[in-house]
Amino acid sequence: MSGYSNYGGSMGGGGGGGSYGRGGNKEVFDGKQLRRAVQRRTVDYNSSAMRWFLDRTWKNEVGEAPMPQPVYEASLDLVPPAAPIMKANPVTSVCTKFVHSSVNKPRCPINACRWTPEGKRLITGASTGEFTLWNGLTFNFETILQAHDSAVRSMIWSHNEYWMVTGDHQGLIKYWQSNMNNLKAFQAHEESIRDISFAVSDLKFASCSDDGAIKVWDFERVEEERTLKGHGWDVRCIDWHPILPIIASGSKDSLIKIWDAKSGKNLTTLHGHKNTIAKIKWNMNGNWLLTGSRDQLVKVFDIRTMKEFQTLRGHKREVTSMQWHPVHEDLFVSGAWDGAICYWVIGQDQPIASVTTAHQSSVWDLDWHPLGHILVSASNDHTTKFWTRNRPGDTMSDRYVNAEGKEEDPASTTSQPSQRPRLSRDSDGSAGRGFRSNQTYQGNHRQGPPQGRGPSYHQGGPPSSPRGIGAHPGNSPRGTGRPAPQIPPGGGHARGGLSQHTGGRDILQRQWRAFNNEGGRTRLIQQLKLG
Question: Can you say where the WD repeats lie in this chain (predicted)?
C-alpha cells in the first residue's frame, strides 16, 4: 500500500507513491520509483463552442462579428471553424502548430488513424494489428487492444456513426461497434486490403485490394454483390460518391476509373497521372474529385466535365495521404513520403501553408477532428502527431515550432515583417482569404506571396461555370446554388425570431459587460498565460 508523508508537501505521480522527508531524501513505500506529475498541453473546444452558441444570435453573419485581434487576450474570442466568421475564411482553419506526439510502447509504423464520431478519442491502427485509443483533449494514452493478426491497412466509420469497418494485410474485414466490440469478421480478399468506403446510405460498402479487384458488399448480410474488374494492377484507393451510386478508384497502373455501383460498369477512365494513384477523395459538394499520386502531383477533376481543372505542385516526394476539411469545402491537406504536410486551397497553385519536417518518414494517413480545429497525422516513423490552429498573438517562434519541439528562427529568412491573417473583403464583395498581403507560410518559415487570390468562380464549380445548375455568384452565398436569404419585411430580425426591439441583444451585451467588470475575463487570461 502506498503512503504519503504530509511534511513538506505531498508529492504524487503515476506508477507509485512517495514523499520527501525532513532531510530531503526520497521515501518510497511500495518499491516503485516516484514520478513527478507532467503537465500536458490541452486543446479543449468546449469554451470556444460555448462562445459561439452565446454569440450566434446576434453575430450570425460575417460582417457582424470582428475577427480576433492579433493579441494573446483574443484567444478567448476564438470560435470553431463552423462559425460564420471562420467558415468564410479557410485560412483560419490551417493547423500548423504542433501540439503533441504520441508513441506506443511497442514502436511500429502507424498505418491508419480515425477520430471517433463525437471527437473525444482518436483510434490508430498499427502494423502489429493493434488499435490504440488516445484522449482527444489531452492526447494521452487510454487503452490498447489486439484488433487484427496482421497490419491494419484501412479504417472507416459509417455515416450513421454506429459502425467502424477495418481491413488488414491478410484481406480480412471486421465490423466494430463504437465501444470497440468486434461483431463480425470475414475473408474479403486474397491479398492486402488497401481502402474501404461506405455508400451514403450505409447499406453497402466497397473494398479494394492488391489482388486488383474492387468488391461491393451488402453490409447487413455480409455478402458480396459484385466485383468490379478493369484495373491492370493493384487497386490502391477507392471512394464512394457522397450523393450518387458512383465509385472512384485509383490503381498502380496510374489510371483513375469511375464505376457505376449498381451495374458494375466502368463509366469513364481518367488519364491524369504518370505513376501510382495513392489516394482519391470526393469533395463534399459531389463535384470535385481529388487525386494524389507518386508522381508528386495533386490533381482536381470535375465530374460534370470529366476533365482536370487544376494541378497542384508543392511536394518534393510521392504523395501518400490526403483529406478534405470537414467544414471548408475548398481546403484540404496532403502528406508525402518525406514527411511533409501541405495545406491547399482550391484556386491557388501553391500550398497556403506547409510543415516540411512534420515527420521523419512517410505520412500514411491524415484525419481532421469532426469540428475541424485539430489535424492528426500517422506516420511510418512510429508516431502520431497532433496539430492545431495558431492562437491570436502567437509570436513568430510559436508559429514556427517544428515537430521536434525546436524553435526555428524566422529572422534568418528574407521575409518581410509578418502580417497576421484577418478577414478582408475584395472588390467583388466576397470574403477574402484572410491575408491582405497574400502571404503564406511555407515549412517552418514564411515565404513569398502566392500568385493571386485564385479563380473568380465560386466554390464547387470549375473555372468555366458556377456551382450547380442556375447558380450565379450574385444571387447565391459562395456559389451554393441556393437563393440568398432575404430579410423579411416589417423591419424585424431574421435570425432566431429575435426582433431589434425584444432586447435580446442588449441582454447579452449587459451580461458580457458584467462579466468584464467582475474581472472574469482577466482571470481567464491569467489562467491561459499560466497554462
Answer: 145-177, 186-227, 228-269, 270-311, 312-354, 356-387
- Kindly report the length of the chain: 531
Which stretches of 80-167 are DSSP H helices?
84-87
Name, in order, each residue with C-beta under 8 angstroms of 218's C-beta and a sequence gap of 6 or more: 203, 204, 224, 225
Burial of 487 per CB tally in 10 Å (0-12, 13-18, 19+): exposed
Q: Identify the DSSP state of 407.
A: B
Residue 348 CA: distances (Å) to CA of 23, 137, 285, 335, 453: 65, 33, 19, 18, 7
Cα–chain-centroid distance for residue 434? 20
- How many CB atoms sit inside 10 A of residue 224's CB? 14
Convert the pLDDT of each residue in 300-335 to its tens digit.
Answer: 999 999 999 999 999 999 999 999 999 999 999 999
Give the DSSP H/E element, type plus range, for residue 38.
none
- 296 φψ region: left (φ > 0), alpha (ψ -120 to 50), beta (else): left
- β-strand partners of 63: none
In degrees and rounded to multiples of 5, residue 509 shows phi and psi of -65, -40
Alpha-helical regions (H) of 1-68: 46-55
User: pLDDT tens for residues 189-198?
Assistant: 999 999 999 9
Stretch (H or E) spanning 516: helix 504-517
Q: How many Å apart are CA 79 and CA 109, to the nearest integer?
A: 34
Are β-strands 383-388 and 374-379 bridged in parallel, bridged antiparallel, or unpaired? antiparallel
Determine contact, residues 94/355, Cβ cutoff 8 Å. no
Q: What angle do CA 87, 41, 56 make, to 5 degrees?
A: 30
* Helix spans in 247-290 (H): none
Q: What is the pLDDT of residue 240?
A: 97
| Domains, the chain, with CATH or none | 90-410+420-447 (2.130.10.10)
3-state SS class at 63: helix
User: In angstroms, rounded to a whole number, what is the distance separating the alpha carbons of residues 519 and 272?
Assistant: 60
All three cell numbers of 50, joined, read 460555448
- What number of H helices and E strands is found in the chain? 5, 33
In one-letter notation, the amino acid at residue 297 is L
Residue 67 sits at the vertex; the CA angle it makes with 63 and 68, to the nearest 5 degrees, is: 155
